[in-house]
Amino acid sequence: MTRRIRDVMSPATAAVEPMTTVARAARLMREEDVGDVLVTYDCDLFGVLTDRDIVLRGVADGRDPETTTVGAVCTPPPVVTLGPDDTTDRAAELMRRHAVRRLPVVEHGGVPVGVVTLGDLAATDDPDSALADISRAAPGH
């Protein structure tokens, strides 16, 4: 069933500025129990930093997380985004086309208001699927 993104997205998103260190962003991810943070500058979306970005563009490249900035390793602009009034079908199509698992939700010319993930779509469109079950599981289980 197609739904509006505003009905399935996670509105509370963690965000950092591009000059934040990777180590600080990783600690924020741990504190918030999330796998990504939005990278914003002057309230506009600059990029997205995922745990995978930290590993592949930071640690694997031998960068020091205490001195490397988020802006140097995050998914750079342009970032694929959705609006809160877009549909879950549109989100799935964008995820498929761009091979991503999460999309920032923005309004008013780029102001981030949330994130929608592949797990959010699974829980909405097929609540009995394995992915939906995994997405609903408590962290660490």
UniProtKB/TrEMBL annotation:
CDD domains: CBS_pair_HRP1_like. Residues 65-85 are annotated as: Disordered. Keywords: CBS domain. Residues 9-66, 74-134 form the CBS domain. The keyword Acetylation does not apply. Transmembrane segments: none annotated. InterPro entries: CBS_dom (IPR000644), CBS_dom_sf (IPR046342), Diverse_CBS-Domain (IPR051257). PANTHER family: CBS DOMAIN-CONTAINING PROTEIN, CBS DOMAIN-CONTAINING PROTEIN CBSX3, MITOCHONDRIAL. This is CBS domain-containing protein. It comes from Streptomyces ardesiacus.
